[in-house]
Amino acid sequence: MLLDLGYQVSVHDDLSTGRREYLEGLPREGSTSQGGPIECVEGDILDVHLVNHAVPGHDGIVRLAAEACVPGSLASPRQTYEVNFVGTLNLLDTCHRVVGETRRHRQRRASKLRSSAARERTSKGAEEHR
Fold first, then answer.
1. How far apart are CA 84 and CA 88, in angstroms?
2. Within a 10 A sphere around the Cβ of 54, how many other Cβ atoms?
3. Structural domain spans, the chain
4. Which of 72, 57, 63 has the alpha carbon at shortest distance from 45?
5. DSSP letter string, 38-92
6. In the predicted model, what is the mean pLDDT of residues 11-18?
């Protein structure tokens, strides 16, 4: 289990087919689990605002949100499409944005470190020539 490996885990579920009781017995706030407590958030993958706030700070995502029931998909094809495709797109768009922001931050930081090192070498070289 991810918790046993020291990972922090967040579960986001709209509970349309599941129940909060399914998560009972898992480490919660105040737990002594190696990875810490599981954060449980009730919400829908179609809620872009929720997805935008859920993704940052996570190193990985396992997407299990899906309308997988064939009779249900025949009865509600639009809902199936929205959850399975639009929900995935919401998650991928947010991940792409977050990763891009992280890369830009790392690139700016690395650039500042290189500039600082170059200035230091230049000033040391100037001192040696005096």
1. 6
2. 19
3. 1-43, 45-58+66-130
4. 63
5. PEEEE--TT-HHHHHHHSTT-S----------HHHHHH-HHHHHIIIIIHHHHHH
6. 85
Q: Report pLDDT digits (tens) over 107-122.
A: 666 666 667 666 676 6
SS3 41: strand
Q: How many angstroms separate the CA atoms of 90 and 54, rounded?
A: 11
The letter for the amino acid at 79 is Q
Distance CA 33, CA 38 (A): 9
Indicate the pTM of the whole model: 0.65
The Cα-based distances of 46 to 12, 18, 78 in angstroms read 12, 17, 13
Residues in the chain: 130
